[in-house]
Design goal:
Blueprint lengths: L8 H22 L2 H6 L9 E5 L3 E7 L8 E6 L2 E8 L4 H4 L11 E8 L4 E11 L2 E8 L14
Length: 152
């Protein structure tokens, strides 16, 4: 009696995706066009470096060809969110005929939890040479005082 079945993760994944496709296909046809636009998936994610200095945290995000008006920085409930959009050039606009497009375009969003000592009221952001620099100051904590107590 041979009742042991060999587990095939690829077959399992294919079955799972087969079950999901009709569900999502049905959903997009039932949702109005303007709401489908809001439901779209994030198109790309910029690379980010995070560093710490003595008095601040630094976040540097690569946003090539993103205008500073198209980049948004927000902090809510201890989470820093960088979002925006990199717009794609159209062939009709500049007369180019593209043979290959490998760069990603569209909306993006990255979110990061802030440490407890980050001060969300003291944040600055600027864009230079395609890099968004976000500086989050640390809270100014009262340094502990040492009080000498006389032993009797």
């Amino acid at each position: 009696m041979n009742s042991i079945l060999r587990w095939d993760p690829v077959r399992e994944f294919e079955e799972f995706s087969r079950r999901l496709v009709p569900l999502f296909g049905r959903l997009t046809h039932e949702v109005p066009q303007e709401e489908r636009q809001a439901m779209r998936v994030i198109d790309w994610a910029p690379t980010v470096d995070i560093a710490e200095e003595e008095n601040a945290y630094l976040v540097m995000a690569e946003l090539p060809e993103v205008k500073k008006e198209d980049a948004k920085v927000a902090i809510e409930n201890g989470v820093l969110t960088i979002s925006g959009e990199r717009k794609k050039e159209t062939e009709e606009k500049n007369g180019r005929r593209y043979h290959r497009i490998e760069r990603s375009y569209g909306s993006f969003m990255r979110s990061f939890s802030l440490p407890d000592d980050a001060d969300p009221s003291r944040v600055t952001a600027n864009m230079k040479d395609g890099i968004l620099h976000v500086r989050i100051e640390k809270r100014v904590e009262a340094k502990p005082k040492t009080v000498a107590i006389e032993v009797k």
